[in-house]
């Protein structure tokens, strides 16, 4: 029986992780009283008594507790932005490569990817790693997400009876091109410049589609749509959580079709001149709590998909 502590279990991600683990009989959840949940010493003691701890905190608070705990041997799984590109922290997307997988399995410090970043990296990393996409490719990325990704405050705004009529329409944000996920999107993929990133929040609870359009003539070797599809199929071969759908879907791609699921599906559509790559998943699943639980499973020796809804 492994002991787990969720630091920040009152937030959207922390609550979802706590609920997932509370249903399992192979882990024991450590809890502290409500009046001590912000006390550093109490949280530190709880983490040090656990086999693994999730940090579901603002960035500064995550840095503070990680530094306080130090090298205690506890598996620390941070869902914040704080450590995603920090040396010594494994990036929690094990499907990217054997090296990423090994790092998650062996590291005591694991940073869970951001939701937008997960979709972007699932599409761009394989192309850069294969030498197909130049590191200075002028990437444009669109991402449509449900409002739960904005946390408790945004959820309350969208679900208020007196909400603004503007909330009934999709809203683009990150207009200054300083979105907090850009750093990991660029660094993990090995890009030499940031993409133009256009995130959009819409009036539904959860689920997202991240899209990256490419001109094949700007890719090395000018691959066809079929060749790109084959590359993704090979890269994610035998994966249970990341799947590549058949080539050339048409019609509509719903952003909430995988709400409540923990898988990520990749689509390759378009033609041999202009290809649209898309990753569809739940921002609360593979985009946050599902990815966090997957990392915990791997770090503690559980079956990777234990407690996940595929």
Structural class: alpha/beta
- Average pLDDT score: 96
H/E element order? EHEHEHEEHEHEHEHEEHEEEH
What is the helical fraction, as a range of percent?
Answer: 25-40%
Separate helix tally = 9
Instruction: Tell me how many strands there are.
Output: 13
Structural shape: globular
Catalogue the unreliable spans. none
Strand order in the sheet with the most strands: 8-9-7-10-13-12-11
Distance between the termini: 24 Å
| Rg computed from alpha carbons, rounded to a whole number of angstroms | 19 Å
Largest sheet geometry: 7 strands, mixed
Beta-strand content bin: 15-25%
Structure description:
It is a single chain. This protein is an alpha/beta fold and 310 residues long. 32% of the residues lie in helices and 21% in strands. It has helices spanning 12-22, 40-48, 59-69, 98-106, 115-129, 151-159, 182-189, 225-235, 285-300, and strands at 2-7, 27-30, 52-55, 75-78, 90-91, 109-111, 140-146, 171-172, 196-202, 208-215, 242-244, 264-270, 274-281. The strands form two sheets. A seven-stranded mixed sheet has the order 8-9-7-10-13-12-11. The chain has a six-stranded parallel sheet with strand order 2-1-3-4-6-5, with helices on both faces. Helix 3 links the parallel strand 3 (52-55) and strand 4 (75-78). The longest helix has 16 residues, at 285-300.
């Amino acid at each position: 029986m492994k002991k787990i502590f969720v630091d920040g279990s009152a937030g959207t991600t922390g609550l979802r992780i706590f609920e997932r683990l509370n249903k399992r009989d192979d882990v024991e959840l450590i809890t502290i009283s409500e009046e001590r949940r912000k006390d550093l010493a109490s949280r530190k003691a709880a983490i040090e008594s656990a086999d693994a701890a999730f940090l579901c905190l603002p960035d500064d608070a995550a840095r503070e507790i990680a530094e306080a705990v130090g090298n205690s041997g506890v598996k620390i799984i941070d869902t914040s932005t704080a450590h995603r590109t920090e040396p010594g922290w494994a990036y929690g997307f094990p499907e990217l490569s054997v090296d990423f997988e090994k790092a998650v399995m062996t590291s005591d410090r694991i940073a869970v990817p951001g939701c937008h970043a997960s979709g972007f990296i699932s599409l761009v990393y394989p192309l850069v790693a294969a030498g197909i996409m130049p590191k200075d490719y002028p990437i444009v990325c669109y991402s449509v997400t449900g409002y739960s990704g904005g946390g408790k405050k945004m959820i309350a705004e969208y679900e208020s009876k007196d909400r603004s009529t503007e909330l009934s329409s999709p809203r683009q944000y990150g207009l200054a091109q300083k979105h907090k996920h850009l750093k990991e999107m660029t660094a993990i993929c090995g890009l030499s410049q940031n993409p133009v990133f256009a995130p959009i929040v819409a009036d539904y609870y959860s689920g997202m589609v991240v899209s990256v359009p490419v001109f094949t003539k700007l890719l090395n070797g000018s691959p066809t749509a079929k060749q790109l599809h084959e590359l993704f199929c090979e890269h994610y071969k035998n994966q249970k959580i990341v799947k590549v759908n058949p080539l050339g879907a048409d019609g509509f791609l719903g952003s909430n079709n995988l709400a409540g699921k923990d898988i990520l599906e990749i689509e390759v559509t378009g033609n041999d001149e202009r290809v649209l790559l898309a990753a569809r998943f739940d921002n609360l699943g593979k985009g946050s709590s599902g990815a966090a639980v997957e990392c915990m499973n791997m770090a503690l020796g559980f079956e990777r998909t234990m407690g996940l809804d595929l």
